[in-house]
């Protein structure tokens, strides 16, 4: 396991380093000077210079980069340009909401995909299998901003069951918080659930055609036991990889979903940052997302190795 | 004689694989959905005489004889806006997807030229893919500012690693096949083998990828416009009309119907075409 980790960790760190460089550089390509923008139209050149020195913008590019990395590692992200407040506070406030949303969605992904895949793989009725296929295709294709609007129309406007948008703290009012979470999490989960269900169904299909399943059947093992003890464990490892990739999609999809349901998370923050050209916020958030994604993929590889002992011996 | 006949038959079959794929219920439904929406977008000036940006006195009117889809919050005719929105979407996507595909393929060909180039190109793809989904698009938009060309660039960049990786994988497989080895043994230069023999046989998966990319294009345009980071107003796009309608869902659900239907039909249509082509190739 340790050698496995030692092999994967460097490539993850390399990507992270390259990404940090890219993020730093592209935000320096922007025309115009942030110090001038920040100082306002009536500022004297002296004020602009003072701001520039204060932000470290008069330093050479490479030392600015190293400076930024150092601050990232210590967690001191400095002030935001336009939104107001410290970047670390802004991120801290949004992080909890986004993690809640993403974890809720992840739970729904697994809860939706597993039964759907098992149903699609084991049903003896062609119509049921075809329906599962059609549903996953449709759900996969439709973008979250369309499903989001449809969900609001159905559950909030027509049925009046759930609030159309907003957020409640999980600690203060758990029942309300779950009500607020349900629709955004579902909207975020649906496309990923469809992808996972498809991979898992194909995996189970393939496993059910293997020799060991035929042998087990010949020995009189029940269908249920074959599915849960033989077919599913063998179909799981590739599905875990897919799930890991989908977590990245969940993080990215959160930007849209948070907008639709007025969910006060990092997605809203990055959108505000881009709209108002608040570069420190955008820069730090971009890197945070990439770091999260790289970490998730590393964990996915580890989970794969844990689930499939053959990988560890390579 | 028999060999030539067999060869030409298999050649004809391989040419028609796309056709057989498309002539299934999946392919035909997809083509019909895309066809209807695209036609509506193309014929927008004929179907609706109204200026999509002209504001009227009647805001948030329901569907009626004068305004088939109703009007938006500024009293603009929604039928005209949705039709012109389709046009805007398609004009961006049909420019951006081929551009991204060509760039991705160029990267793959570059990667095929040497081991170092391959390593570098692979890292670039990894890097682009380490920004999940829309996130890279947001970064590009932060630099360039929102607008039509930014949206096109975001779509193109998003497609580069997918086309590049597919073609690279295809080239690696085809390069070791007997015919490629035979051509090399026969004295053909590296670039000739690559461009004349290997490349034509490695592009198959790219046809499917193009259909997928078109649906991703609709998705990205819609998402950026939905966030207010897309094509600048007042020019209508499907995403921006949908985004506008969200504030009025409770009182005027009909506002959202047009953009919802058009976006869904377009994305679903492209996806079905992609699946049909994919099944056709694998057959």
Topology:
The complex is a heterodimer of chains A (314) and B (283).
Chain A: H1 2-28, H2 34-39, H3 45-55, H4 61-74, H5 87-122, H6 126-141, H7 144-158, H8 174-208, H9 211-218, H10 223-260, H11 266-275, H12 279-307, H13 309-312
Chain B: H1 2-22, H2 25-42, H3 44-47, H4 78-113, H5 115-129, H6 135-144, H7 148-175, H8 178-185, H9 190-202, H10 204-226, H11 238-245, H12 254-282
Overview of this structure, please?
The complex is a heterodimer of chains A (314) and B (283). With 314 residues, chain A is mostly helical. Chain A is built from 13 helices and no strands. Chain A has helices at 2-28, 34-39, 45-55, 61-74, 87-122, 126-141, 144-158, 174-208, 211-218, 223-260, 266-275, 279-307, 309-312. In chain A, helix 1 runs antiparallel to helix 12, helix 5 packs across helix 8 and helix 5 packs antiparallel against helix 10. The N and C termini of chain A lie close together (11 Å). The model of chain A has no long low-confidence stretch (mean pLDDT 84). Chain B is 75% helix and 0% strand. Chain B is an all-alpha fold and 283 residues long. Mean pLDDT of chain B is 86; it is low at 1-9. The radius of gyration of chain B is 23 Å and the shape is elongated. Chain B contains twelve helices and no strands. The A-B interface holds A 14-15, 18-19, 22-23, 26-27, 29-30, 137-138, 140-143, 145-146, 149-150, 152-153, 156-157, 164, 248-249, 251-253, 255-256, 259-260, 270-271, 273-275, 277, 279, 282, 286, 289-290, 293-294 and B 123, 126-127, 130-135, 138-143, 215, 218-219, 222-223, 226-229, 239, 242-243, 245-246, 249-250, 253, 256, 260, 263-264, 267-268, 270-272, 275.
């Amino acid at each position: 396991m340790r050698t496995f980790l030692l092999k994967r960790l460097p490539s993850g760190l390399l990507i992270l380093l390259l990404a940090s460089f890219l993020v730093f550089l592209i935000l320096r390509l922007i025309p115009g000077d942030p110090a001038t923008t920040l100082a306002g139209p009536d500022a004297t050149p002296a004020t602009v210079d003072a701001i520039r020195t204060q932000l470290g913008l008069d330093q050479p590019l490479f030392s600015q980069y190293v400076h930024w990395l150092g601050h990232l590692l210590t967690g001191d992200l400095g002030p935001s340009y336009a939104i107001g407040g410290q970047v670390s506070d802004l991120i801290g406030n949004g992080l909890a909401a986004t993690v809640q949303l993403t974890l809720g969605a992840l739970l729904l992904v697994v809860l939706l995909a597993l039964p759907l895949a098992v149903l699609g793989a084991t049903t003896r009725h062609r119509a049921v299998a075809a329906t599962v296929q059609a549903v996953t295709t449709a759900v996969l294709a439709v973008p979250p901003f369309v499903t989001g609007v449809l969900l609001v129309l159905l559950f909030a406007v027509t049925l009046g069951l759930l609030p159309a948008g907003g957020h409640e703290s999980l600690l203060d009012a758990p029942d309300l918080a779950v009500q607020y979470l349900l629709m955004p999490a579902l909207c975020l989960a649906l496309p990923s659930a469809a992808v996972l269900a498809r991979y898992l169904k194909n995996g189970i299909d393939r496993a059910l055609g293997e020799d060991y399943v035929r042998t087990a059947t010949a020995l009189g093992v029940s269908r249920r036991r074959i599915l849960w003890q033989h077919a599913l464990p063998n179909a799981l490892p590739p599905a875990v990889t897919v799930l890991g990739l989908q977590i990245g999609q969940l993080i990215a999809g959160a930007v849209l979903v948070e907008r639709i349901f007025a969910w006060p998370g990092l997605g809203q923050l990055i959108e505000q940052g881009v709209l108002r050209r608040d570069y420190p916020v955008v820069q730090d958030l971009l890197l945070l997302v990439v770091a999260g994604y790289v970490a998730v993929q590393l964990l996915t590889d580890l989970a794969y190795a844990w689930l499939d002992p053959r990988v560890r011996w390579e | 004689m028999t060999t030539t006949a067999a060869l030409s038959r298999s050649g004809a079959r391989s040419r028609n694989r796309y056709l057989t794929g498309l002539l299934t219920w999946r392919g035909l439904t997809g083509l019909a959905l895309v066809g209807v929406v695209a036609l509506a977008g193309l014929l927008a000036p004929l179907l609706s005489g109204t200026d999509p940006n002209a504001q009227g006195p009647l805001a948030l009117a329901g569907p009626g004889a004068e305004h088939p889809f109703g009007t938006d919050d500024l009293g603009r005719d929604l039928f005209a806006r949705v039709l012109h929105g389709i046009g805007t979407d398609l004009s961006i996507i049909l420019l951006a997807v081929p551009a991204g595909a060509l760039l991705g393929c160029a990267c793959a060909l570059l990667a095929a030229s040497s081991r170092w180039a391959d390593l570098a190109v692979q890292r670039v793809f990894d890097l682009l893919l380490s920004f999940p989904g829309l996130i890279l698009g947001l970064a590009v938009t932060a630099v360039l500012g929102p607008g039509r060309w930014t949206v096109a660039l975001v779509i193109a960049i998003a497609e580069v690693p997918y086309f590049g990786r597919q073609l690279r994988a295809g080239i690696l497989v085809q390069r070791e096949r007997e015919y490629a080895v035979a051509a090399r043994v026969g004295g053909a230069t590296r670039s000739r083998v690559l461009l004349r023999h290997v490349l034509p046989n490695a592009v198959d998966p790219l046809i499917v990828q193009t259909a997928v990319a078109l649906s991703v294009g609709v998705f990205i345009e819609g998402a950026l416009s939905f966030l207010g980071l897309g094509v600048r107003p007042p020019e209508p796009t499907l995403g921006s009309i949908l985004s506008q309608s969200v504030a009025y869902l409770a009182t005027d659900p009909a506002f959202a119907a047009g953009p919802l239907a058009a976006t869904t039909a377009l994305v679903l249509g492209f996806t079905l075409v992609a699946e049909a082509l994919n099944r056709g190739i694998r057959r």
